């Protein structure tokens, strides 16, 4: 089991802080300092303003490094067996993602490989992937189920996700995505499958395995009416919801999710103006997934300006999964969010810190401010706009997760 932070006070000085503490702007503090007390940030500011006579147990010089909140990947499907490189080749020959799914490949093939894997294999492969994300400063990770599609196998995948959070120096938030695809046992009976999913939720929750509930609302997934039944079951359990919405077509999923107070709606390339307004009214975060957009060679962009104009918070995530986004670099997603979706570098960084935290319902992280969890990344960079600028290289130098320094 991982250690927890001792109740010591540690001072980190000579940092260029990008606090993201205000509603806009980088919140830059030159020659800044951070006081960490146990797992929590106790003080942030200019070194020159440090309270006099401060008693600390240890002091570290960051040598002028850029310091940001630890990164948060708020949408991943990290736990699965096998891989789908052959399907990638099929798509390069002209088959579409939806064609392959309809022909019984796609998510279904990963379900077969996931069910065939042992728990030890699932844990080892997911931990390997988590460590790649962590090397770039990720300190909080959401992990969805959705490749088990039976009570037993969904529970196993969620349990593996919980173990990642217990055994690695990061926080894992778990999401039950049993309504990801139709389980093979329910062929031709999607409504019966949704009934089953609704009956599993309280059982999975009772085992402490679920922080949120998600569904794939799509022509090749589940209808809005089926999605709503899953949301109603989540609501009866008191669990927050989120949704894979409007990725390949407009199903009205975002507006439905907003009615259930969804934490986030994710993908959104086909989001309508009505969907934008509904998300704005419910305070739902738009989680943008440029890795899937890139890998599926999509051309229709999410309605970025409409989302901005409506004041919808923007998050950015890897959507790591073996079918539509096999990437394991959140920094590359920042680059893609700017280059492909035209986010500003500041929006992109907010998308993997403060707004990603909000997409997970976590108010205690994503900014450098007193009282926040001491999840912090130090970078070999001068300015935070470089995080979205460089790609294919990792400038992460040091990471604190809950106040404890770990190897990035
Ligand atoms: N949308 C996605 O991008 C992933 N799931 C989903 O509903 C893809 C999952 C896969 O292809 O395995
Ligand atoms: Fe996804």
Separate helix tally: 14
Low-confidence stretches: none
| Cofactors, ions, other ligands | 3-[(4S)-2,5-dioxoimidazolidin-4-yl]propanoic acid, fe (iii) ion
Note the beta-strand portion.
15-25%
Largest sheet: 8 strands, parallel
End-to-end Cα distance, whole Å, is: 18 Å
Q: Which strand order spans the largest sheet, edge to edge or round the barrel?
A: 5-6-7-8-9-10-11-12
The class by helix and strand makeup works out as alpha/beta
- Coarse shape: globular
The helicity comes to 25-40%
Mean pLDDT across the residues is: 97
What features would you describe in this structure?
The protein is of the alpha/beta class and 408 residues long. It has helices at residues 85-92, 97-102, 107-116, 119-135, 151-167, 190-206, 224-236, 253-259, 273-282, 290-295, 304-310, 330-339, 345-351, 354-359; strands at 9-18, 28-37, 40-46, 58-69, 71-73, 138-144, 171-179, 212-217, 242-245, 264-267, 285-288, 314-316, 376-379, 396-401, 404-406. The strands form 2 sheets. It has an 8-stranded parallel β-sheet. Strands 3-2-1-4-13-14-15 form a 7-stranded mixed β-sheet, with no helix packed on it. The longest helix has 17 residues, at 119-135. The chain is globular. Bound molecules: 3-[(4S)-2,5-dioxoimidazolidin-4-yl]propanoic acid and fe (iii) ion (FE).
């Amino acid at each position: 089991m991982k250690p927890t932070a001792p109740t010591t006070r540690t001072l980190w000085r000579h940092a260029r802080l990008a606090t993201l503490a205000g509603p806009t702007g980088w919140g830059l503090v030159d020659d800044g300092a951070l006081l960490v007390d146990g797992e929590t940030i106790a003080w942030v500011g200019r070194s020159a303003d440090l309270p006099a006579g401060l008693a600390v147990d240890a002091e570290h010089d960051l040598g002028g490094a850029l310091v940001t909140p630890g990164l948060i990947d708020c949408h991943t499907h990290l736990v699965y067996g096998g891989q789908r490189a052959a399907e990638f080749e099929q798509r390069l020959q002209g088959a579409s993602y939806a064609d392959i799914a309809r022909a019984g490949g796609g998510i279904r093939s990963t379900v077969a490989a996931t069910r065939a894997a042992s728990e030890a294999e699932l844990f080892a492969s997911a931990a390997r992937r988590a460590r790649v994300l962590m090397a770039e400063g990720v300190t909080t990770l959401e992990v969805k189920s959705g490749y088990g599609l039976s009570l037993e196998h969904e529970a196993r995948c969620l349990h593996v996700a919980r173990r990642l959070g217990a055994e690695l120096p990061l926080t894992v938030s778990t999401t039950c995505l049993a309504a990801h695809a139709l389980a093979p046992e329910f062929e031709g009976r999607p409504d019966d499958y949704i009934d089953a999913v609704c009956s599993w939720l309280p059982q999975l929750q009772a085992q402490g395995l679920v922080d949120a509930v998600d569904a794939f609302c799509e022509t090749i997934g589940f209808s809005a009416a089926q999605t709503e039944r899953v949301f109603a079951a989540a609501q009866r359990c008191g669990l927050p919801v989120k949704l894979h919405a409007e990725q390949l077509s407009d199903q009205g999923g975002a507006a439905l999710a907003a009615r259930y107070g969804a934490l986030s709606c994710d993908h959104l390339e086909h989001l309508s103006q009505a969907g934008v307004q509904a998300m704005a009214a419910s305070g739902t975060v738009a989680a943008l997934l440029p890795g899937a957009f890139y890998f599926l060679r999509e051309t229709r962009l999410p309605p970025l300006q409409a989302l901005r104009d409506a004041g919808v918070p923007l998050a950015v995530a890897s959507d790591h999964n073996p079918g539509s986004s096999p990437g394991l670099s959140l920094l590359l997603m920042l680059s893609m969010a700017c280059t492909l979706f035209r986010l500003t570098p500041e929006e992109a960084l907010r998308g993997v810190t403060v707004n990603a935290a909000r997409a997970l319902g976590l108010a205690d992280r994503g900014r450098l401010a007193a009282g926040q969890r001491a999840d912090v990344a130090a970078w070999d960079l001068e300015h935070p706009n470089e995080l979205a600028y460089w790609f294919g290289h990792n400038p992460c130098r040091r990471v604190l997760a809950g106040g404890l320094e770990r190897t990035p």
